[in-house]
Amino acid sequence: MQSPSKTVRNATQEAMNQTFPRSVLSASRDEFGNKEDNPDAKDLLKMNVKDGELPLDLQGHVFIVAPVGSIDSPDDRGQRTNSTVYPSSDGTTPLYNGDGMIYRLDFDNLEAGAFLSSRLVKPPCYYADTATDKCQKYQNLKFKNYGITRLGALGVRNQLNTAFVPLKFSQAESERLLATWDVGRPYEIDPKTLETVTPVGRKDEWKEVTNISLPGRLPQPFGVIQTSAHPCFDPRTREMFTVNIGRSFSNIFSQLIPIGYIFKEFLDSILHGQKTKINAKEKDSVILPELETKPLSLCNKIVAIVESIWKFLRGLIGIFTDNFVYLMRWDGSGNLQKWEVRHNGFSIKIKQSIHQMAVTEDYIVLLDTAFKVSVEELLPTLTNKKYQRFEKLLRNFFDRPQLSDNSFYIIRRSDLKPEKFYVDAKKVTISGEAAHFLADYKNPGDLITLHLSHVCAWDAAEWISEFDFDNDKTRNLATTNLQRLYGTIAGPMDISKFGCHVVNGKKGELVKEHQNVIMDEKYTWGPAISTYQNHLLPDRLEDIYWICLGCWEDLKTEHMVHLYKGYKYREFSLESIDDITKQGRPSNLLRLHIAPQESVKKGENRLSIPDAYSFPDGYWVMSPQFVPRNNSGSSTDGYIVCLVHYGDGSDETNGNEIWIFDAASLENGPVCKLWHSQLNVAFTIHTTWLQKVNKRTATYWIDPQKDYNDVVQQQSRQVQDLFNKWVYPKQEPKTEADCQLS
Ligand SMILES: [Fe+2]
User: Fold this and answer.
1) How far is the CA of 180 from the centre of ligand 1 (A)?
2) If you measure from the C-alpha of residue 198 to the centroid of ligand 1, how many angstroms do you get, rounded to a whole number?
3) Distance from the CA of 3 to the center of ligand 1, in angstroms?
């Protein structure tokens, strides 16, 4: 282990090029693939080899998911487009916000080459978003970006742009695939066609974050459901686990997504008067969603008003009382089973999110993760220039650092009895916040081994926005004439660490003598995403591959300094962080080795970084995926496929390349680089790998019409028309003219 220093003595000798790649700012929304799989797709892309050779023992299929902006994202001139978009160019939309695009790299016909398909994830709200954007008659129902979320009168978009979960519920069944994210039901994707097939769980099997509604406002079809972006699947018992979360008083500001939206409407209405103008011709066919026009008697009106006010107040009270976390189990075909998770007799309170969870042989592990989803992320939307100062003030008032300690909740799987409604959890606190963690499958003697990337003072919910450019101290962000990095994740405010922690699941205690932590001044800055050999589920993790952001001067903001100046576990002073950021630390791919507990002597560290690759100046790596070379199950016998960004995107590669490393020798650099002139990605996130892709044959399917019928029947004729013409039949108008044909 390399001990930290309060100085920068181990700094890279030569200052690196601190220009973060602008290629991350643009993304293509084009779909590619075989016509028989996707009739709307352009041709399948055969990847070009830039350097090296495709290893002939690569196998299977790598899936990558990424947000690629929304239906109304602009092109480089600010114009509407259906192709290459700049989703964050408004100055406040993070690159996280956008429809999920699934990319699949096929390595199953290497003699012909490597091929790439891509397809947008399209749950029902996608079709509502598209139709309300294109068709004038639905314009009052349009969705808009509010920071990290995309909202409208119909509710919140389920963008499914973050991660995957492969599933295999029986020996006979081929592998199935889920697309996931933190705020919406997971959806099953056909691995072959990449088509969006069905949600997991009916609408009425999930509970919304809050049931607050304004007097006179009908329930929204697309309510806010909070879950985990990383449900887990146990291939040995063939069970999938996820969570359904509601949060309340302990994190009241984070509960206010609907109120944030209402607040925005209120501001807009003050400025613009009526929020929606509808021309006379349309007026006859349109009923605004908040009020039905059926004539009511005075008595009925009074009853309706009282009822609405009561619902609103009840929802408001619920903010203070309705904590809940349900642990859900699914067998791939039936209803979701669920248990309320309690600790000391009370429902557990999640203060941030359960971005990640884990399953071991005997336990389910939940973590209140360092990924906050809160009202300040909604506020700076710059819808009106007059309110910019006010919005900045609100951001600074509401915003807060992520919690610096981890609250783990541990549930014994044998306690998940069908006849019970709740399950008790043990709580364990581990210092040093984490957003991602893994667990060894085996837990001998009830000892659970957790592997954390401690993202110390590095906040994935903070991104660069217009507000970061109006301060002399952050002029470094604006010193060049390059595009501003709007929407890009902010850099770390302290060094990150890796931790291997052992917890007694039965007692709910941290086993103190078994804690191991490592940090390295050269490498451990912003370890974002990991991959490992899990094709044959290992009993314990021996090697985990992490990609790290590095330190970039143009990702350092004064707002982050302000948020984390009082960080509890600080290793480097803010002055040192400033120096290091100015010098730069390259983005890297590293292998974290975890020695068996029994092989290390007392006082020795189980953790080491035996192999790493630092990317060239100006290069940034994301989305690593381990591809096994064969079925040996060895933790280093394979390849790491990852996505690399560089430059400003003007290159013929669009500044995006797929690099392939030998997992056993990262330091020797990539063995192959792939590119294609039509591959243009922005902020890619998680990945997965399937050995084979077959057309989905599972019969589990939730009919969207039945799923939404109850709530849609309560809506105006306009909303019912939208669902009947566009959402249920999965139709997309390409232009306004298509709307007239419907
Ligand atoms: Fe994640």
Assistant:
1) 10
2) 22
3) 28
- Please give the distance, rounded to the nearest whole angstrom, from the Cα atom of residue 436 to the centre of ligand 1: 6
* Alpha carbon of 20 to ligand 1 centroid (Å): 22
Taking the centre of ligand 1 as the mean of its atom positions, its distance from the CA of residue 140, in whole angstroms, is 34
Number of folded domains in the chain? 1
CB neighbour list of residue 212: distance below 8 Å, 6 or more residues apart: 258, 259, 312, 315, 316, 318, 319
CA of 606 to the centre of ligand 1 (A): 25
Contact 458, 487 (CB under 8 A): no
Q: How far is the CA of 42 from the centre of ligand 1 (A)?
A: 30
CA 712 to ligand 1 center in whole angstroms:
33
Q: Do 573 and 596 touch, CB atoms closer than 8 A?
A: no
Using the mean position of ligand 1's atoms as its centre, give its distance from the Cα of residue 316 in Å: 31
Distance CA(106)–CA(34), nearest Å, equals 12
**2 falls within a domain:** no
Residue 614 falls inside a structural domain:
yes
The string of DSSP letters for 526-539 reads: -EEEEE---SS--S
On whether residue 723 sits in a domain, the answer given is: no
Question: Of the given ranges (153-167, 267-281, 650-664), which has the lowest mean pLDDT?
Answer: 267-281
pLDDT at position 370 is 82
Residue found by looking up tokens 């035996």 in the block:
610
Domain range enclosing 210: 22-123+158-279+298-702
441-483 pLDDT, tens digit each: 999 999 999 999 999 999 888 888 888 886 555 545 555 567 8
**Global pTM?**
0.89
Residue 7 lies in a domain: no
